[in-house]
Amino acid sequence: MTNAPLSAPKPGEGALLWAVKIFSGVLILLILILHFLVNHYWAPNGLLSHAEVVAYYQNYPIVPIMEGFFLIFVVAHSLLGVRSILLDLRPSPRVLRGVDGMLILIGVTASVYGIWLLIRVTGWGG
User: Fold this and answer.
1) Angle, CA of 85, 90 and 91, to the nearest 5°
2) What are the transmembrane regions (predicted)?
3) Per-residue model confidence as pLDDT tens for the chain (126 residues)
4) Where are the strands (E) in the chain, listed by range?
5) 12 Cβ partners below 8 Å, 6+ apart?
């Protein structure tokens, strides 16, 4: 039996990115459970229609805030996972910088669009 750690940073990953990946995975699990409780268990009729979701978001502003954090954690965790898979291919530092830039662009675009959509659905944007 070895004493190898259950999870550790890969070469090229760095401790900070590894910690963000692990931390975001735990937060995703917790927020997913909270999401199901709030949107499906505690909701008056279980599954909600689009109009009910909009009304629910407008009446309980903590819910879209929770959904926004859920979106950001899922995007970050998934893109760090993609980066981790690409690290297994042992790209050159130059290629890795390009991949990092592309993943950051995708992550920021997806997060900004998702937050914008939440603002539009809740009617907070006017």
Assistant:
1) 100
2) 15-42, 62-86, 98-119
3) 556 565 666 676 778 888 888 888 888 899 889 888 877 777 777 777 788 888 888 888 888 998 899 899 999 999 988 998 888 888 898 999 999 999 999 999 999 999 999 999 888 766
4) none
5) 87, 96
End-to-end CA gap in the chain: 61
Residue with tokens 């917790």: 30
Token output for 111: 């997060």
pTM of the model: 0.75
CA 6, 12, 14, 18 torsion-angle sign: negative
Q: Assess contact for 8 and 18: CB atoms under 8 A.
A: yes
Give the whole-angstrom CA distance, residue 54 versus residue 61.
11
Burial of 111 (0-12, 13-18, 19+ CB in 10 A): middle
Residue ranges per domain, the chain? 51-126
By the 8 A CB rule, do 76 and 107 touch?
A: yes
Residue showing tokens 């998934």: 78
